[in-house]
Amino acid sequence: MTCKNSKHTLKLCQIVGARPQFIKYYPVSAAIEKVNREAPGAIHDVLIHTGQHYDYDMSKVFFDELGIREPDHHLEAGSGLHGQQTADILIKTEAVLKEEKPDIVIVYGDTNSTLGGALAAAKLNIPVAHVEAGLRSFNRSMPEEINRILTDRISHRLFCPSMTAMGHLEREGFQICDNGRPERTEEPCALFTGDVMADVFIHAGQIAASRPSVLESLDAEPGRFALLTLHRAENTDDPGRFSKIQEFINQMAEDIPVVFPVHPRVQNRLKEQLGGFHNNVRTIQPAGYFSLLQLLGACAFVLTDSGGLQKEAFWARKPCITLRDETEWVETVDAGWNVLWTHFTTLDALPKKQAAPYGDGHAAEKIVRYLLS
Predict the structure, then answer these.
(1) Is 82 annotated as catalytic?
(2) Do 267 and 288 contact (CB within 8 A), yes or no?
């Protein structure tokens, strides 16, 4: 990949907008800083924050905790219907990209920020690199599934967190680069890098362990509570489905306390929903990243509809019950640490294995090296 700005400098625009993307950006930015220490000026990194998550507990707290620098551009897209929000991100991102003229745009995951940013770049003929490419839940009623499929289709470099993701892209006709170098440089190319979230988990776990325990303020006993997160629209916006999930959680809460950091968009749903949760479900404010890792490390098991937390539970060796009808992180299910709530019988029935399908903890370094090549 050539650099049109200077033969010595690769100019990147990285687009983030939601909590998981701030976390994924962190190790990539660290890898870029390492390159620039060894070869000053090798990479010019421009950070664009769409503002998809604008609440402090879902946005700035992660910049503060992870030590991420302030964005170069804050688009303040805010909330809204999917089409409205995606269009707003596309329009505002396009204006920034026309100003910055980067060599490549990096997008993360499967949010509206991912698709809006990728579309803006593609329409300006700027190559797109998709970090966390190739995931498939095969449920197209999920906005995330549409976002990830369309983003993959317009990406130039597709960085896959697992060999399962690589297999999906190969079946969809993408060129596979086993050695990290595409045979045909200008064609879309899928590469296995491992998961940048694994990079973060290793580093952040050490920091979390050195901090004052959040358990003290919660009066929670290690190993004697379950950790719950719930935020996906498919679960919270459908009253009937939300009620069924609530019933399932309440059944679990009869046997063990449940700690529930509540996502801002779910606050109103909790107020509207009749019946409420079991009095053994303790709702708290959204947890910062390190606080969440502390809760994960201390809990007995996890209940979640979050893709990121499914993997973090797997790495922490905590049984996970996924509150969805399918998951794109099938490796965690195959390894026996994760089960879909519709298939759940008992945690003791999970045949837990010591698998490592998400790389060696150096995904971000590989991504940056591939971009430079």
Answers:
(1) no
(2) no
Domain ranges of the chain: 10-195+359-372, 214-349
| Digit-coded pLDDT (tens) for 328-352 | 999 999 999 999 999 999 988 888 8
- Answer yes or no: same fold for 10-195+359-372 and 214-349: yes
Nearest partner of 364 among 9, 43, 6, 89, judged by Cα? 43
Q: At what angle do helices 82-100 and 112-123 cross, to 10 degrees?
A: 40
- What one-character DSSP code corresponds to residue 351? -
Active-site choice (49, 73, 168, 231): 231
The C-alpha torsion from 16 through 20 and 26 to 29, rounded to 10°, is -30
Q: Give the torsion sign (CA, 331, 183, 196, 95).
A: negative
pLDDT digits (tens, 9 = 90+) for 60-80: 666 787 888 899 999 988 777
- Whether the Cβ atoms of residue 298 and residue 215 lie closer than 8 Å to each other: yes
Model pLDDT for residues 87-135, shown as the tens digit of each residue:
999 999 999 999 999 999 999 999 999 999 999 999 999 999 999 999 9
- Find out whether 90 and 116 touch, Cβ atoms under 8 Å: yes
Q: Which residues are 73's β-sheet partners?
A: 48
The answer to whether the CB of 238 falls within 8 A of the CB of 305 is no
Strand pairing category for 301-304 and 226-229: parallel
pLDDT of residue 275: 61
CATH of 214-349, one of 3.30.300.20, 2.40.170.20, 3.40.50.300, 3.40.50.2000: 3.40.50.2000
The CATH number of 10-195+359-372 is which of 3.40.50.300, 1.10.10.10, 2.120.10.30, 3.40.50.2000? Answer: 3.40.50.2000
Which residues, in sequence order, are bridge partners of residue 261?
284
Return the pLDDT at 1.
42
Question: Percent of the chain, pLDDT > 90?
Answer: 68
Contacts of 83 (CB under 8 A, 6+ apart): none
